[in-house]
TrEMBL record:
Membrane topology field: Multi-pass membrane protein
Keyword Transmembrane helix applies: yes
Gene Ontology cellular component annotations, sorted alphabetically: plasma membrane
Protein name: Aromatic acid exporter family protein
Lineage: Bacteria, Bacillati, Bacillota, Bacilli, Bacillales
Domain of life assignment: Bacteria
Organism for this UniProt entry: Halobacillus halophilus (strain ATCC 35676 / DSM 2266 / JCM 20832 / KCTC 3685 / LMG 17431 / NBRC 102448 / NCIMB 2269) (Sporosarcina halophila)
Length: 355
């Protein structure tokens, strides 16, 4: 079992909320722990958004609960009616599901039967929930703040490495079909998580003007890295679909296809290594070699070969030609963006590893 930062932060925030709740003598400190579970977020920015929204949601729930108790009592049907109103108000305000759920919990907690003075009982329970929200926000702010830049690059690097390895094997018709089919599904899931991590990274706020400009360039560079990796994945899927039809291509063209694709893969790997800082920035020849793959000429040859044949299946290679052209175009674009970033931000490295 792997313990993630969010799991540890949830446990710590629950412990803090329970401790402070007992220390202050709240009637139900357990509500503070429940509020923590609904309030922990994966990023500081989302935590800030969440605390404002959840304070609003809990206030709406508390007000409706108090009005309902004083006017209609706390009969079970009245509680249900109050919950319907709370859900209606919060969804109309487009609050997220956790906020709506926590507002419902607030209604149920405040409308519970009690022998104590209702206002004291309600204010104590409402304070417990506010304590849980604040505890989650503070823990999220100061304890193990997420480093999405490093996490994002690792996901991109891992996915790129897997895709390029499979491309090398597949183009030589050495891949095991069941294994490749499984890997394609797995890599698709990894790319979805990469997009999610990119979203979290883009939400991180920088408050210094210089760093904000650098962060904007990093976002563009990371977006292009992801796009290029996806295009290489599209090429891999195209080869997978054509696995048994590649043999229809003349042997000399098969060799040319493997050679050109190897150059393309090497170019992609060099760009990733350059981003890791493993290629000297003054060693420009390594980056010039990215121009060696001549994919447009390769695609032209492919079209020329099949214009001379009457094979009815020749059109199935058009998607492969399209994917190769698009992959080459995105790789050239990535090269330009990387060189531009490295020339303008020589001292601001992308965090590719944990410090």
């Amino acid at each position: 079992m792997k313990l993630g930062a969010r799991m540890m932060k949830t446990g710590l925030a629950v412990a803090i909320a329970l401790y402070i709740g007992n220390l202050l003598g709240f009637i139900s400190p357990l509500l503070a722990a429940i509020a923590v579970v609904f309030s922990i977020q994966p990023s500081i920015y989302r935590s800030y958004q969440s605390i404002i929204e959840q304070l609003q949601g809990n206030t709406i729930g508390a007000l409706i609960a108090v009005v309902a108790v004083f006017t209609l009592g706390n009969d079970p049907f009245v509680v249900g009616f109050a919950i319907i109103l709370v859900i209606g108000f919060t969804t109309t305000l487009k609050m997220n599901e956790n906020t709506v759920a926590l507002a419902v919990v607030a209604v149920i907690a405040l409308m519970d039967s009690t022998d104590q003075t209702f206002m004291y009982f309600a204010s104590s329970r409402f304070s417990s929930m506010i304590l849980g929200i604040l505890a989650a926000f503070i823990v999220n702010l100061v304890f193990l703040p997420p480093r999405y830049e490093t996490r994002l690059f690792k996901k991109i690097d891992l996915a790129t490495t897997d895709i390029l390895q499979w491309l090398r094997v597949t183009t030589r018709q050495l891949s095991d079909e069941p294994a490749l089919k499984y890997e394609i599904v797995r890599i698709q899931d990894e790319m979805r998580w990469t997009d999610h991590t990119y979203l979290l990274y883009s939400e991180e706020r920088t408050y210094l003007k210089g760093r904000r400009f650098s962060k904007g360039r990093k976002l563009v560079l990371f977006r292009q890295l992801i796009t290029t990796t996806k295009k290489s994945f599209d090429v891999l899927k195209a080869f997978y679909r054509l696995d048994h039809k590649i043999e229809q291509i003349p042997e000399d063209f098969q060799n040319a296809l493997v050679d050109e694709l190897d150059k393309l893969i090497n170019a992609h790997e060099k760009l990733v290594l350059s981003l890791k800082g493993r290629i000297k920035r003054t060693h420009k020849q390594g980056l010039r070699q990215i121009e060696e793959p001549n994919i447009p000429l390769l695609v032209e040859r492919l079209m020329h070969v099949y214009e001379k044949t009457n094979n009815p299946d020749k059109l199935v290679f058009l998607p492969l030609a399209s994917q190769l052209m698009e992959y080459h175009y995105q790789l050239e674009k990535l090269k330009r963006l990387l060189k531009s970033y490295q020339s303008h931000h020589q001292s601001d490295y992308i965090q590719t590893t944990e410090k």
